[in-house]
């Protein structure tokens, strides 16, 4: 299958980095600061959202008032502190990359709804630069996911056609973006179940892990 493609694009949180749980932890710490006790289940609806969509919904759900920029700063401070000691790659990603991507002629990119500022922090916490030279964050995207625009921009920058491109994603927001780009999409079940992924688009290929992805190669 890999021989059919000229480029591979990866989402970051939940696909390359085991970071979704860290963002959840940061949210819970922020809520605790405001005297709100919540749970991971109550945070599911926010996975994959860009900051423009996340903060209004988050503040509305938990009745937090105040300036969005202040809430962003507080949450980012909690998140960056957690990342310094707990950030890691998704299990199997590094071995998969070295086996199938590193020595291939594939063009490789990272497409994330994370801000450039947070990505720069990630670069100081983990060796993500060993794997990606091309990165588009929400700061550079003309529209955030679930719009297909970030992936279409990446394809244009890397001189790829959708028919030549394979995308790895995990969240509903990201999978919608990827499938709307018309590329071939593999959905990892790190955030959603098989059924939930297929309900987004039945054409999405589903894998439970990077070892499982190998069956498509």
> From the 3D coordinates, which CATH architecture of the largest domain would you assign?
3-Layer(aba) Sandwich
Strand count, sense and barrel status of the largest sheet are:
6 strands, parallel
Number of domains: 2
CATH topology label of the largest domain: Rossmann fold
* Helix percentage: 40-55%
User: In terms of per-residue confidence, which ranges show pLDDT below 50 for 5 or more consecutive residues?
Assistant: none
Q: What is the count of DSSP helices, taking H or I runs of 4+ residues?
A: 9
Oligomer: single chain
Strand content: 5-15%
Distance between the termini: 5 Å
Fold and architecture overview:
The chain is 42% helix and 12% strand. It is of the alpha/beta class and 217 residues long. The chain has 2 domains: 2-18 and 89-216, HAD superfamily/HAD-like (Rossmann fold), CATH 3.40.50.1000; 20-86. It is globular.
């Amino acid at each position: 299958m890999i021989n059919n493609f000229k480029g591979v694009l990866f989402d970051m949180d939940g696909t390359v980095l085991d970071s979704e749980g860290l963002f959840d932890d940061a949210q819970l710490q922020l809520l605790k600061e405001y005297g709100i006790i919540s749970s991971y289940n109550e945070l599911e609806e926010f996975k994959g959202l860009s900051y423009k969509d996340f903060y209004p919904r988050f503040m509305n759900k938990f009745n937090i008032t105040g300036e969005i920029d202040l809430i962003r700063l507080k949450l980012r401070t909690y998140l960056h502190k957690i990342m310094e000691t707990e950030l890691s790659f998704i299990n199997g990603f590094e071995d998969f990359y070295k086996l199938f991507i590193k020595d291939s002629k594939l063009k490789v990119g990272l497409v994330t709804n994370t801000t450039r500022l947070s990505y720069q922090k990630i670069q100081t916490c983990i060796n993500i630069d060993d794997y990606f030279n091309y990165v588009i964050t929400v700061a550079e995207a003309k529209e955030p996911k679930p719009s297909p625009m970030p992936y279409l921009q990446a394809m244009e920058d890397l001189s790829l056609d959708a028919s030549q491109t394979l995308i790895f994603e995990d969240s509903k927001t990201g999978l919608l973006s990827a499938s709307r780009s018309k590329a071939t999409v593999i959905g990892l079940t790190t955030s959603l179940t098989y059924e939930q992924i297929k309900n987004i688009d039945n054409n999405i290929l589903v894998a439970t892990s990077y070892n499982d992805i190998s069956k498509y190669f």
